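Backbones bend. Shown next:

***
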Amino acid sequence: MSSWEDDDSAAAAAAAAAASTDVELLKRAWRNEKASPEILRFDSPLVSRVREQIQLLEETLDDFGESGVDDLVVSLYQMDLDRTLFLLRSYLRLRLQKIEKYMMHISKSEDLLSRLSQQEQRFAKSCTEMMEKHLEQSVLSKLPYGYDSVTRQSLSSTEDDMGISFDLIIIPEPQLDTFVFCKTKSDVGAFQLDDIGEEVVDLVADDLYVLRYKSIKGLVESGQIDLI
């Protein structure tokens, strides 16, 4: 075998390994997003790489169709393409569902907005504007000042003229106290689960735990713990 063939084979093997690694990373991002009660940070570089790999697989399958490659080889490539497409679509769909559910909550937080991709930010803004317009036309326009705006209503917890404290608009928020299944990727050691140090757990690599998401969200964000 010539040197250029060796180089070509090595490059192909490296590309295949990188594609496999990115699919595993996407699977991990999908699991974390599915199990997390709140929306996590969008992994833009990973999604861009996966989209490039999908395009490459589609082009390869087109070339196979023209060159008469064995059907078994074609089916294997098609399976890889289908698996990758499913993961990417499911990952993006999970995020859109969370944006739809928590749009008002997300729109009030710069931190949460920064976790979204540019397309997701536009989607969240569009959803929020449509919801505000619907509420103002159907309900809030008929109420006194102070209750006639979604923004004022969401920030208001004052008493009305009758001395009754209530909120007309309840904005859904993710329940961060939810218990989640998780697995440590490395030894974390003694980890404090509460603010006063009464709950401490020794997090050992590759062990499974059931913990409150709020306590470990920092470890999830840093990649030290995976949700399952």
The beta strands are 179-184, 189-192, 200-203, 208-212, 225-227.
